[in-house]
Amino acid sequence: IISQNLLPQCSLVTWSSNRLVPYRSNILLPGGGIKKSRFVIRNGTSDGYVVGENEDLGSLARRGDSRSKLLIPGLPDQSNGEASAARITPSHCEWKPNLSVHYEKSGCDNVEAPAVLFLPGFGVGSFHYEKQLTDLGRDYRVWAVDFVGQGLSLPTQDPTTTTMSEEAGALEDSEPFWGFGDEAQPWADQLVYSLDLWREQVQYIVEEVIGEPVYIAGNSLGGYVALYFAATHPHLVKGVTLLNATPFWGFFPNPVRSPRLARLFPWSGTFPLPARVKKLTELVWQKISDPESIAEILKQVYKDHSTDVDKVFSRIVEITQHPAAAASFASIMFAPGGELSFSEALSRCKENNVQICLMYGREDPWVGPIWGKKIKKELPNAPYYEISPAGHCPHDEVPEVVNYLMRGWIKHLESGGFEALPLLEDGEEDWEQSSIAREMEFPRGEGWKKSVKLWLYGSKYSFWGGVGEAFRASLVRVLRGRSV
Question: What proportions of the chain, in percent to the nearest 5, are helix, strand and coil?
Fold first, then answer.
């Protein structure tokens, strides 16, 4: 077997228990000779390779034991000799009057490959999945969409009308905000940027743009929407991946779910904004749209501050300059909750046997892994991976690991379970009872590699045991910080 991302090596292997088992490994010397090596290469699924000593064969690194490393490919534009990155094609479609949906796609030539759809978190857009589009687009047909009211899916016209006196006053100031008028435009009547609207938008994208059932993945808010869509349209979903999914959104009662309670609130995110909300929005927007505030938020959600977020930062700043951004933000913040809560959507998915995979950054300051562990408790057989160090956006902070897991997860489902889940390539002896831990290493730039820790928790994993483990890990970090 010729390994990748390593010096040229050749391994003698034998077939045993439906997997390749290396016997010994030799290094091919430049002069043509052969040198015996005490290391072996073990071929795993999802294009990963494990390097370890011969005596490590046949046993997985468990409960933090990382004597062997799993070497996985880097991003296509960072790996020597890798195929070129998949080309990203931006596009848009007119969904509703003056509501144009922006999306990006890659891998369109992979006509027989599964379709994968990524949903973004709050305040970002399809650009946050560039590392998935360029990499996974080499094997699959990949889409990433901007929710309406965010990213590049903001309205193309002011959703409200203003009187002449208001217009004259606005001209004396800087660029006026859209949505601050006195009456809603006919096309914007009852428009509110909510979970239910985004669920309808995803349905449109899947049915009309993609045209077939998809593997759907979402980060933060996008995770909630992905689960919500799968709960209401299970026939359009082949599997759901939750990336630090937020389990809560919308703090006001839903008018369909609780009509009497909803009537107690005079405004629920529709246009135009009430006078008091306009003033509050102006004050809050001035603060949160400031580039320094945006930079501070990114610093919070990314654990590894060496991660290049310049492009993400500039795109977020660009979005805040749109005249509709402030009112859209207010609409989102005051929008009612969905007809289904996160817990109810999860139960609905469980009833319909929707396949779910969990991938969580362990150091997320907003949606910590405890929320992933709660989902794992409800779905014991769902694969649950934790990555460390990684924060709220693991797909952008450690895309190599997330892409590796996504490939393995999709292969597992497409093969009907014949292909093993990532980290289970060597069998599932006692996985149900325990957890598997492995150090993941991948190339980053020229001449250096990055490594992170990856855990896979078994179907009988204890929720309270996980809470205790998380507490102990936090305590260790605090004590280490004090000692430093």
Answer: 35, 25, 40
* Sheet arrangement for strand 9-16: 9-16, 19-28, 34-37
CB 153 within 8 A of CB 101: yes
Instruction: Give the CA angle between residues 119, 120, 121 to the nearest 5°.
Output: 135
CA distance 76 to 78: 5
What pTM does this model have? 0.82
Tens-digit pLDDT string for the chain (484 aa): 334 444 444 443 333 333 333 333 333 334 444 333 333 333 344 445 444 433 333 333 334 444 478 999 999 964 444 568 999 999 999 999 999 999 999 999 999 999 999 999 999 999 999 999 999 999 999 999 999 999 999 999 999 998 755 444 443 445 679 999 999 999 999 999 999 999 999 999 999 999 999 999 999 999 999 999 999 999 999 999 999 999 999 989 999 999 999 988 889 999 999 999 999 999 999 999 999 999 999 999 999 999 999 999 999 999 999 999 999 999 999 999 999 999 999 999 999 999 999 999 999 999 999 999 999 999 999 999 999 999 999 999 999 999 999 999 999 999 999 999 999 875 555 556 568 999 999 998 777 899 999 999 987 665 555 555 556 656 655 665 565 5
Answer positive or negative: Cα dihedral of 314, 320, 324, 328: positive
CA dihedral of 183, 188, 190, 195, whole degrees rounded to 10? -140
Tell me if the bond preceding 389 is cis, omega within 30° of 0: yes
**Residues recorded for the chain:** 484
Token duo for residue 215: 């593997």
Distance CA 351, CA 349 (A): 5
List of residues 6+ apart from 141 with CB closer than 8 A: 105, 106, 107, 108, 110, 111, 113, 114, 115, 116, 210
